[in-house]
Every structure is written in C-alpha cells, then in structure tokens.
Amino acid sequence: MPDVFLCEITHNIVLTDAVFSIAVTCPELARESVAGQFLHIKCGQERILRRPISICSIRGDEVRFVFEVKGEGTRWLSECVIGQRLDILAPLGNGFTMPEGNVIVVGGGVGTPPMLFAAESAIKEVTAVLGFRSKDRIILTDEFKALCDEVYITTDDGSAGIHGMVTGPLEALLKKGGYDTVMTCGQLIMQKAVAELCARYNIPCQVSVEERMGCGVGACLVCACETVTGGVRQMSRACADGPVFDASEVVW
Q1: I need a labelling partner for 150 at 20 to 30 A (CA). Which of 58, 88, 117, 140 fits?
Q2: What is the CA radius of gyration of the chain?
Q3: Domain 103-208 belongs to what topology?
Q4: CATH number of the 3-92 domain
Q5: Distance CA 57, CA 120 (A)
Q6: Could you read off the pLDDT of 237-250 as tens digits, one per residue?
Q7: Do 128 and 115 touch, CB atoms closer than 8 A?
C-alpha cells in the first residue's frame, strides 16, 4: 500500500548535463516496491504538485531514481544534498509482471532507468536494448551490463553503438527467438514501434506509458489514456491503472 515516507538522501550523482541519480534510504519502501512503480516526490514547500519519477533500482534499503531536469521542481530536486530528507508518496502504480522465462527490456532515453529495475527483477536471462539520441545522452549502461546477458546500445546519430532505432536489434532478437516477454519504457513513438514488432512476432509486450500526472493516485484524471479491453474502448488512468499496461490494450 502507498504511504508517505520521509527519506534521507544517500547520494546525488550527475549522469549527464541534465540527468541526475538520487538514492534515498527507506527499508519499508525498498521492500514494498516492484519494477515499473513510481515515486511521487514533493519538490519544495512552495510547490503543491509532486513530481512522479519511476524507481530505477533497489539496493538493500536504498531506493534509487533517475530523472531529467525539465522545470523548477526537478531543478530543485537536482540541487538536494546528501542527508536532506525528501517527502515521498510511494510506491504508486502497477508494475511489470515478471514471467518465468527470458526477458528483453527496451529503454529509450530517460525511459531507460525503470528498465534497470526490471532487469534486476528478472527471474531468468535478460537482454537489454537501450536507445539514446547521441553518445553524450547515454546513461546506466555499465549497470545494465552487470545485470544482463547481452546489452545493445543504439543512437539516433550513430555517435555510439548501433546507428538507428531500438527496433533494429530488437527485431533481430525476436527473429532468433527464445524470449518470453518484452518490457519497455520510453517515448510513445518508440513504444508503439516496439509493440507492433512484438505483435508481429507473437511475443507478449508490457509497456510503461509516460503521461503527464497531477495527483498520482487516480483522482484528477490528468493522466487519462485510451485503452481497450474485450473490444471495448475506455479511458484508463496511467497512475492508478498503469503505468504498466499490456501493449495489446493500449490504443496508440
């Protein structure tokens, strides 16, 4: 069940010019969280709305999240220091369902961090396909390599790894076979392409949708997204019904 925790910051590390990694210590939150869930963080006393940020990893009693500075709230968060306490409502949302078999995790840009937690939680072999705009935007690859059997890096401009989109190496893996589920988080256009590939190769796919959120608990309906169940279209809440959905249920 979600609760409000006052969590002490144990590290704040700069990953790129705009991406930061923060870890907090909270034994209860670490025990209760599953891959795909998110934290709703209060960013200063003067800001009413919390900021939703996916959980990146769990290490013992430490809960880590990685985020990009996009406004005043995340700027405030990036400037927090070790020992400072954060007001966090968590864990929120429905996470990934881990299969018994082999998994491919697909991350794009700042959608990559929650896929590290998914890789940590995999029961059997896990392969990662990670896409970034350019070499200077790449994050967390060493940690994925420590967890995964194989890691493929793509960049839009070809400055590192494979030149192109994640769909290139992903399709090669799906053709080879031996995987039971694909899990993904990133930009909508990437997730749609991943979902279409998985449908073509008849591989189950779970997507963590990225919608703008307000309350984080399903009351305000800011994060409504269209889904379909049993042929019936409906509006679902990314924060409460998701953020993880079966890809076949998402109306792209």
Answers
A1: 58
A2: 17
A3: Rossmann fold (3.40.50)
A4: 2.40.30.10
A5: 7
A6: 999 999 999 999 99
A7: yes
